[in-house]
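FAQ: What does a ligand-bound record look like?

Like this one, built around zinc ion:
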Amino acid sequence: MTGRLSQSQTTEDAYRRSYEQALKDINKPMSVVVKNWSPSRCPRCKRSFESFELCFDGYYRRAKSMERCPYCGQTLDWQEEDENNAI
Ligand SMILES: [Zn+2]
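The answer part, i.e. the structure of the complex:
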């Protein structure tokens, strides 16, 4: 018995699975793309965080208080870096 019902159920399952997978993915921290002399970027959507990071003479104050990308919701992992981190 593979009627219309089971077929639509399969579609629904696949939809839910991919939705859950997407949720799982954005909840799994990804390393922020941090490069000297440029604003950080989201590892998922690649958008720049320049509106969230102040720039002093080319040094960016990283928006480490952001736990998620404001654009796609990706959980962010800010790796420790030595750059300007002396204090
Ligand atoms: Zn993003």
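Follow-up question: can I read anything off the structure? Yes, for example: Residues 20-77 form one domain.
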